[in-house]
Amino acid sequence: MSGTEAKRLVFAMLDTDGDGIVSRAEYAARAERVALASGRTADDPKVVAARAAGEGAWKSMDANGDGGVTFEEYDAWAGAEAFDTVCEPVLGALFDLADTDEDGALTLPEFTMLRTALGNPPRNIGTAFEALDTDGDGRVARDDYLASIRAHVTGGNSPMGKVLYAG
Ligand SMILES: [Ca+2]
Ligand SMILES: [Ca+2]
Ligand SMILES: [Ca+2]
């Protein structure tokens, strides 16, 4: 899968209403959905952290500051550098919301809760978990999860990304 193709799939997931623009509200709703699904309260420090990381990421993506992120903006922005400086903290903060026992890993139910809240088709989530849980212990580590998404959005090989973002 090419980098642009991979980015299109991620963009399509972010653009919930499919109007070709990721609005601030659409992006912010991601953290709110995960917070709600994880049963956390609005003032939970982890929710506050995820919200702040998301807000910063969205501002960084909206390069021309017009209040919407087009695919062209996203395509020009997304990549290894943006992932390391902006996306990783956001995705890590969302992972932490789902990691209720704080052991740095997600079980299948936790992973399913996280990725369902982020808008992936349910049928892809179990397959993505299997692709990530390479040692088959039923847990997916935070670092492995983040590295796999990084590989996906930078055009590298990501068995998880391939199934997770498939249509
Ligand atoms: Ca939209
Ligand atoms: Ca814009
Ligand atoms: Ca855990």
TrEMBL record:
Name of one Pfam family that matches: EF-hand_5
Signal peptide: none
Domain named EF-hand: residues: 2-37, 49-84, 86-121
Any one GO MF annotation of this record: calcium ion binding
Top-level lineage group: Bacteria
InterPro entries with a match to the protein in the record: EF-hand-dom_pair, EF_Hand_1_Ca_BS, EF_hand_dom
SUPFAM superfamilies registered for this protein in UniProt: EF-hand
PANTHER family from the UniProt entry: IP16409P, RETICULOCALBIN
Protein name: Ca2+-binding EF-hand superfamily protein
Organism for this UniProt entry: Streptomyces eurocidicus (Streptoverticillium eurocidicus)
Taxonomic lineage from the root: Bacteria, Bacillati, Actinomycetota, Actinomycetes, Kitasatosporales
